[in-house]
Amino acid sequence: MKAASASPTLPVALTEALLTTIIWGSSFVVAKIGLRTIGPLTLAGLRYFLAFLLLSPFLLIRLRRNGWPDRGTLRQLALLGITAYLLGNGALFIALQSVPATLVSFMMSLGPIFILIGSLVWLKETPTRLQVAGLLVSLGGMALFFIPGLQASSLRGLAILALGTLAFAAFGLMGRAMARDRRVDSMTLTAVPLAVGGGALLIVGWAVEGWPKATLEGAAIVGWLALVNTAIAYLIYNHALQRLTALQMNLILNLSPFVTAGLAFLLLGERLTLLQGIGLVVAIVGVAVAQRPSRAGASPPIAGT
Fold first, then answer.
1. How many CA atoms, within 13 angstroms, populate the side-chain half-sphere of residue 216?
2. Domain count, the chain
3. Model confidence band, residue 57 (pLDDT cutoffs 50, 70, 90)
C-alpha cells in the first residue's frame, strides 16, 4: 500500500527534526517528576500505549480510507515497535540502574556510527564527505561534553546499554526505509509500533514493578508525555523521515541531550563546565556541517526522489 501524503520540503523537514529534538530533549526533565510515583518501565509503557490510544481514532479513519497494510508491512511495523520501545527504551531504563546517566547519554550519541554503517549496507544511502566530517565533529563535541562526568561502570550495564543503542539505530534505519519508500503513511507508521511496543513494555513494567500509585501529578505527567512527547513528536519525526536520511535525522537528534542540559540549567539551576560548553558548540557545528548538501542547491542523497 502506498501512502498518499506529500513529502515535506527540506527546510520543513529540518524544522520538524529540530522541533522533535526539542520535545524529546524535555522528556528526561518531565519524566523525572513522574518517577516519584511510577516505576520507569511502567511510566514508559503507559506513555507509549496511551499515545497509541490517542492516535487510534485517526488511525482507524486512515485505515478505512487507504485499507490495511499487507501482512509483511504489518510485521515490519510490529518489529519497529518491539525494537524501539520494548528493547531500546527497556534497555535504556534498565541500564540507568547501574550506569551513570552521563555515560548513558554519551553512549546513545554513538548511534550515528551504526546508522552510517547501516545506511551504506542496507539503505544504499551513501553519505557525502561533508556528512561524514560533520558526524566526526559532532561525536567529538559529544565526547568533550560528556567526558567530565564519565565514571567506571559495570560490564553488565554497559552491555545492556549497547543493546539499547543498537536497537535505536535499527529503529532509525527501518523507519527511514519505510518512510522513504512510502509504504505506509505517517499515522500508520507512528501508531502501530506504539501499540505493539508500548503494550509489550507496559505488560513487562507491571509484571516487574506492580501497579503504579494513582496520583493527579502522575496522571498529568503521563498524559503530557503521551500526547506531546510521543504522539505529536513521533508524527513529526516520521513525516520528516520522508525527506531526511537516517544519518541526517540522527545527527540532529543528537542535540537532545543538550536540550535537556539547557532545560536543567533553566529549571533546576544546573550549570555546565567550560569544557562542556565547548563540546556543545563543537557538536552543533558538526550537525550544521552534516546538513550541507554536496553541491550548491542540491538535495540530500535520497533514493527514489
1. 0
2. 1
3. very high
